[in-house]
Sequence to fold (200 residues):
Amino acid sequence: MIFERFLNPKRISMPDIDIDVQDDKRMEIINYLINKYGYERVNNIVTFSTLGKKSAIRDILRAYNINPIKINQISKLIPSNEDTLIEEVNKNLTLNKELEQLNPHDSTFKNKIINQTTRISGFYRQIGTHAAGIVIAKNPTIELIPISKNPDNFLQTQISMEYLEYFGLIKMDILGLKTLTTIKEIEAHIKKNTQQIIDW
Fold:
């Protein structure tokens, strides 16, 4: 494959390199890259999950020791859309009533919940690993950016993909596709049952 196909003179950002592979072969490719370029030069990419209003209000209500059943009931009344919790409460009478009944002896409790939920909505809640993205660097990435080890003992960037190019790093997507694995299995069945070899 000619590398120039990834380059475009009109493109401002770094080139986008995507490779689709069998999902049962992806780790073989990752291990090959690590063996070829070095463990300290091949990194997974971190992702950051943020708090939406549903998960935010669940965390706030848990902090007030609200019954988990009641938390679930309230959470189900909140749709996953772009509206703020304040907007949802204003247009959803059932949600408004449920929040008021959480602490009928404190007339300010509903507003406390709304304000605190609104304040933490959008905050980072936890980290994960990008499903396909990796970084391959010329030098050990620890010389450029902070890194850590993920649960699978692979090195992982502590900077999300949208900021990597500021440090001269390119994200490459090595995406494992079940479809390609299925095609390979079909080829194997055809060869076994008909002795015919499929040559693409």
Summary: The chain has a mean pLDDT of 89.
